[in-house]
Specification:
Oligomer: single chain
Shape: elongated
Distance between the termini: 38 Å
Number of strands: 6
Helix content: 25-40%
Structural class: alpha+beta
């Protein structure tokens, strides 16, 4: 089973994060960016998995909403999908490069950059050598 609720629909530069590793799950869970903020989720899977439960025995938190299902359905059939993924890959490279250059420039709060595509994490530390977490630092906003 692959949980792509947080990482799916282009957030890593591929339609689903699991594609980076060639994973082909029996079941796929997706939501959030799939419907651009509308209440929609999906459970997708191999026919033998999807046909196994009794009628009504398989669903998600936001299943069955025709209004919310219209935009992702149209998007899935459009050529915009390819452009979205290309933009995500470019953005991911730019973000990673910027985060790393900040760390190399001596920003003491930048210790480690990890993630895929634009779905990145920047580790904040008080000291880059000891890597003591900067959990008590005030927020910059």
């Amino acid at each position: 089973m692959a949980d792509e609720i947080q990482s799916g629909v282009g957030r890593t530069g591929k339609m689903f994060a699991m594609e980076h590793w060639g994973v082909e799950p029996d079941l796929l869970l997706t939501a959030k960016s799939m419907a651009a903020g509308m209440p929609l989720s999906a459970v997708v899977g191999r026919a033998e998995m999807m046909n196994a439960p009794q009628v009504g025995g398989l669903g998600g938190t936001y299943g069955g909403n025709r209004f919310a299902a219209a935009p992702p359905w149209q998007f899935s059939k459009s050529s915009k999908k390819k452009k979205l993924l290309e933009k995500a890959q470019v953005l991911g490279k730019k973000l990673r490069q910027r985060f790393r250059s900040n760390a190399e420039a001596g920003w003491r709060s930048s210790a480690n950059v990890r993630g895929i595509g634009p779905m990145l994490a920047l580790e904040l530390v008080k000291d880059r050598v000891t890597k003591e977490p900067a959990a008590d630092w005030p927020k910059p906003w």
